[in-house]
UniProtKB/TrEMBL annotation:
It comes from Gemmobacter aquaticus. Pfam families: HTH_1, LysR_substrate. The keyword Ligase does not apply. This is LysR family transcriptional regulator. Keywords: DNA-binding, Transcription, Transcription regulation. GO terms for biological process: lysine biosynthetic process via diaminopimelate; positive regulation of gene expression.
Length: 308
């Protein structure tokens, strides 16, 4: 079996591909042209095939060499990420809090909660990733101190922190026939109305679809969107009505959008996750407290609007 490449050989190979000549590569590596020429010969002996073709005083990598170069660059990109993370840690004045959240919470719950936390700890650095923390695992590697999800969750690898329980609400374009009236809307009120829906794999979409099917109510679905905020934008543009989580919907109240209650509204649960094997940072607990407070205040607002 042939030996693998050494780190020195990898550096030599990358430099020659990058600069195109042994002379330039040697200068970049602080070496000499004769030394690098010898190292290139040993490198090709190690890999067992030709790496470069000489044309017009330059070295051009072969097809195999380019494949090897791309594999090496992928490895170096991982190192670049490590160094970038190290730079962020050095630049941070204090603690770094990593949050992973569904996009809908990054635009509804988090801004106010983060603002409150920053008033308490102005030196804190918060890194927010818009992704589902449930897609991470001990195998792939948890990369958050606190994760925000919709629904409940049961997994021994994470600690679940309940933040709030709500009921979904109806979004109606201003001037729409369903925009006026007393009391919450019922399933039958949506018969033959244009309905802006979430994607077919969204769990809340599936719950609503089943409810309408069981009630024998037919809706028109002119537009399907992947995010709750995009659904609200479509409703605001008059493309149809919808039923969504109240946290996102409240942000559009009064902006050409009317909110009404829904008699058979499914519940909407907000939870925070903390990896069980990850040390707690003080700011994660404080952020969870602010998130719970914002949820409670939102629930009070919904009750005042008779939407809860």
């Amino acid at each position: 079996m042939r030996p693998g490449l050494t780190l020195r050989q990898v550096d030599v190979f990358r430099a020659i591909v990058k600069f195109g000549t042994v002379t330039a590569a040697a200068a970049a590596l602080g070496s000499s042209q004769p030394t690098l020429t010898r190292e290139l010969l040993r490198l090709e002996a190690t890999v067992g095939f030709q790496l470069f073709e000489r044309r017009r005083q330059r070295l051009h990598p072969t097809a195999r060499a380019l494949k090897l170069y791309h594999a090496i660059e992928e490895a170096y990109s991982g190192l670049d990420k490590i160094n970038a993370s190290l730079l962020r840690m050095r630049a941070a004045y204090g603690e770094i809090l990593q949050v992973s959240t569904l996009p809908t919470f990054a635009q509804s719950l988090l801004p106010e909660a983060v603002a409150r936390l920053h008033r308490e700890a102005p030196g804190l650095t918060i890194e927010i990733d818009n992704g589902d923390p449930r897609n991470q695992s001990p195998i792939s590697g948890f990369n958050f101190d606190l994760g925000l999800i919709e629904g409940e969750y049961d997994d021994p690898t994470t600690e679940v922190i309940p933040l709030g329980r709500f009921r979904q609400v109806c979004l109606i374009p201003a001037g729409h026939p369903l925009a006026s009236g007393e009391g919450p809307l019922k399933l039958q009120d949506f018969e033959d109305h244009a309905f802006v829906s979430l994607g077919p794999k969204d769990p809340y979409r599936m719950i609503l679809d089943r409810m309408f099917d069981e009630a024998g109510v037919t809706r028109r679905l002119p537009v399907t969107m992947q995010s709750a905020n995009a659904v609200c934008e479509m409703v605001r543009s008059g493309l149809g009505v919808s039923i969504l989580n109240p946290l996102t919907a409240l942000g559009y109240l009064g902006d050409r959008v009317v909110l009404r209650g829904f008699a058979q509204a499914p519940g909407f649960v907000v939870s925070a996750l903390h990896p069980a094997d990850r040390p707690w940072v003080d700011s994660a607990g404080r952020l969870a407290g602010h998130l719970r407070a914002v949820c409670a205040e939102t629930q009070q607002r919904l009750q005042a609007l008779r939407l809860s």
